[in-house]
Amino acid sequence: MSADPVRVVNRLVDRRPTISGAQIVAHLVPPRQFVSATIDSYRPDPDYVSQTEAVEAVDVFSAVWTAGPSGGFFRRKRTPAALPGIYFDGGFGVGKTHLLAALWHRAPGRKYFGTFIEYTALVGALGYADTIHLLRGASLVCIDEFELDDPGDTRLMSRLLSELVHSGTRIAATSNTPPNALGEGRFAAVDFLREIDALAAKFTTIRIDGLDYRRRTVAGHAGTVPDGDIEDAIGAVGGTTTIDDFDEVVEHLATVHPSRYVTLVEGLAAVAFRHVRQFTSQTDALRFVAFVDRLYDAQVRIIATGLPLDEVFAEDMLAGGYRKKYLRAMSRLIALTSSD
């Protein structure tokens, strides 16, 4: 007897994820779509020279792991390239995470790759001292989506990274644009360095300009299906799938810490939402952005009825300080609802 290729989990809201310190550590590797990311697989846009320059910066930064002790690199005077930290500044969809993952793959020995939320959750699960003990001695710690809009957690991470740098660990980071920075990343570098002032002198800032690479191949709106066709759309995906009312998912996300969203979507091939509508609460919208990031990392397909998901953020939200986050989420929602 052949097994049904679709095993539907009744509802996403029935999932009550927990996450331990050990589970967080196990997830401190690049997301699924970047497990084989390399410098060679990064495709710089020829219209933006900064993308090629970013590739060169990764080569220089990683040279400390490949150059011999008698190489010219170590005989040169100290230059920005020799600094122990590197920060990728730029808009969404220009390949910052790809470059971060490529750098992680080049690093030798023990190394970690996670989002800002995962590292702060690790401190919450293990405590500050035990987190330092765990990470100390790593060749590289990568922080994707460094959150500049949470002053307390930003200071915590600045202190933690300072200790790691002093112990010889190298740091690489990307960042979200902070509140009130409406320039699509143009002010992110300044704010990043200000907020981690104890570390600022140890970071080389690499500006990456360009267009959202997802829009190069995917255009238009997020895909939708008629409400009556959602079961058939689920059946066409295969694998474990959930189906929920959109409002119930939004309510459920409020009961789950964002650090647990990674386990909330673990093992899913697709999630389906009925009756998608526009957000009226910015708090709900930002939680959904964090959830979309984890769906994207895990490459979980989205099937939806109602309003196209790239239209769920109201105009006043898109005009505010979190504009860049919303635009990134919209781009990812278009990609995840695409049938290509």
TrEMBL record:
<dbReference type="GO" id="GO:0016887">
    <property type="term" value="F:ATP hydrolysis activity"/>
</dbReference>
<dbReference type="GO" id="GO:0005524">
    <property type="term" value="F:ATP binding"/>
</dbReference>
<keyword id="KW-0131">Cell cycle</keyword>
<protein>
    <submittedName>
        <fullName>Cell division protein ZapE</fullName>
    </submittedName>
</protein>
<keyword id="KW-0547">Nucleotide-binding</keyword>
<dbReference type="GO" id="GO:0051301">
    <property type="term" value="P:cell division"/>
</dbReference>
<keyword id="KW-0132">Cell division</keyword>
<keyword id="KW-0067">ATP-binding</keyword>
<dbReference type="Pfam" id="PF03969">
    <property type="entry name" value="AFG1_ATPase"/>
</dbReference>
<dbReference type="InterPro" id="IPR005654">
    <property type="entry name" value="ATPase_AFG1-like"/>
</dbReference>
<dbReference type="GO" id="GO:0005737">
    <property type="term" value="C:cytoplasm"/>
</dbReference>
<dbReference type="InterPro" id="IPR027417">
    <property type="entry name" value="P-loop_NTPase"/>
</dbReference>
